[in-house]
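User: For my dataset I need records formatted as: sequence, then structure tokens, nothing else. Please produce one.
Assistant:
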Amino acid sequence: MFLNVFLWICLIAVLAGCAPLPRYTNLPVSEIPSPNFNARRPNFVIIHHTSNDSAAPALRTLTDPLKEVSSHYLIARDGKIIYLVDEMARAWHAGDSYWGGNRDLNSSSIGIELDNNGDEPFAEPMMQSLLALLADLKARYKIPAANFLGHGDVAPGRKTDPSRWFPWKRLADAGYGVWCDAPPAPSAETDGALLLAAFGYDISSLDAAIAAFKRHFVPEDATRSLTGRDRALLSCLITGRLQRD
């Protein structure tokens, strides 16, 4: 009887070919492959800059097995998009990371490296390609607008990319990220750390979280304290994220 059931399952799972399941546990288990599954999908996009003056050295690093670092895509200054890691695979780009309770962004994100040294504007052909790629990823994986982030957002204190030069407002206007256009009224009532945590930042190092927030949303201000305007801006961003989600 058991054999007949197994053969019936195999018959309706022709596409799966009744291939043996990868074995991870050492415990004794019965193996009956099910056809009812699909690939896990990414829910975040993390944007980086390479810190190089051209794409060539970044490409060498991202493909060197000894470096143990990678991303799904690298976009060169001329707009060329280089596909490096299967979108369904876990690239090694975010490292020790955190956002809104998620402590392993590598497992749930697409990593995109931009050919930029971190101290220069981002080339227009590259930005055009980035926007096209983001549109493609968002459409295919239904990624929420608020889940397009920078490496510095998810690893404050450890990373600063994609730098103060990155045009986050341009991305948000296109639907990739959140932004508040109107200068909000100053507010001194709500605790800044609470607002940063509610938005998604890791506040275990508050100074680092403040710096990451300002680099993304107030790049002209390099101070390490939250003003009333900053708190009002955070409140606006949280509200905007909830409305867009």
